[in-house]
Amino acid sequence: MRVEGCRLASRRLALVCIVACVVLQAQARAGAASRVAQLVEANVMATHAYQILLARKSGKGDAACFTQGGLSDEELQALVTHQSNLLKSKVEEVSSWARGRKSNFDPSRDLEPILKSGLVVPAAAPVSVFTDYLRAHARSQSDAARLRSVASLHQTILEVERDGDLLQEQFAFYKGLGLPVYVGQLGLPGGDDDFLAAGRELERRACASPFATDAAAWQIAGRKVWNWGEKHLHIRDDRVLAAELLREPDVKAIVPRVRAVPAQRVAVVGHSFTMGQHWSSPSSFVPVVTEIFRRENPKVEFRQFERGGLTALRAKQRFYQGVLDWKPDKVLLVVMTRTDEDYDALREMGEGFKAAGVEVFMFDDIHDPETVSKPGTSARAVRVARDTGIKVIEVGALLSSAPERGRFLSLDRIHMTEPYHRLMAKEWLKFLAGARGERLAGRAE
């Protein structure tokens, strides 16, 4: 009897321990979820603080939706600063803190001041409206923080102006916390028509803001967040595109040529069409080709000197000397020429690089919409280039006749989508590998 009693007591004790463990684990999960939610909400609140200041400065937006809530401009700006500091925290430490583990993250420095500010984000604010939309339409089960992180990114991107810095920090922050960063992770579709349909629903519900919130604005915001989300998660980026191209027969055929290119340095000085981080495509043709060489022939070294809206004059002022100091063997110029000063700068760079023993190249016409709208611009740039010894790689006719040319332009009608960059990547790769010359096949050199 005593033995049986001991066994019964042991089983009861084990059951109590199991229940206690389950309860503790549930409490730990709840605590972690609560802390993660706080981190997301702090971002939403601080972004709203910035947008209140934006509304005040611009005189745009519904006053009731962007009310200061008793906070002064200085107090609102302090919240913005706390957000900036929070996003610059080591996300590994923040994640450990959120999950109740040992961490050096101190929530009292930047997190708690935002949460304790008392700032209220109204139900009609774009971020609140989009959160409600996700709650109603998300096809995968998601807690509030997982919906809110995606809504937070759309909140920031609607401003447009901070998508190159703060937005990218938010992407990295949420990714580091294991949160979704685009609607595809919530089971929603990612076509331009899908984003437009969502925008038509959202534009009716969101309050007037100091930035556009019409259907088109929501559509382009959706496309940007989707593309950047896939880049940050390496679902579609330069590495993925390079791997796909290397499997295509016409690229596979020139891999031996790529591997045979001698060691050299190639500098690319270019505007947004050359920038892999731009939202319009998973990557641009320049980083894709760079990645192909990294895989197949790492002796060829590339460096990009890039800036959005880069004209020839700005390229000369900002990058020319730095390129010379790097001592490249080849330089590709992808710059805009809009003024006489730009053509003069193009000439001076061409002559300077040539004097330094550097081969210089540019494309004849990359179908920049602004250039297309001003007949003669590309032709004049080509004349200046050839007069100064810049070699001109012909791609314009190929782009004009491409079967997918109707899909080249992105939603902003300025930048280019993946089909464009895949085609340009092939031509740039072929040229570097010696599989084509400056002129298109069938045209006299």
Describe the structure.
With 445 residues, this protein is α/β, with parallel strands linked by helices. It has two domains: 27-232, Dehydroquinate synthase-like, alpha domain (Up-down Bundle); 238-433, Rossmann fold (3-Layer(aba) Sandwich), CATH 3.40.50. The chain has helices at 2-58, 73-87, 91-98, 107-115, 126-137, 144-157, 166-176, 192-203, 215-232, 238-246, 249-252, 255-260, 285-296, 312-318, 320-326, 340-355, 369-372, 377-387, 396-401, 418-433, and strands spanning 264-270, 300-306, 330-334, 359-363, 391-393. α1 crosses α4 and α5 packs across α6.
Can you give me a brief rundown of this structure?
This protein has about 450 residues and is α/β, with parallel strands linked by helices.
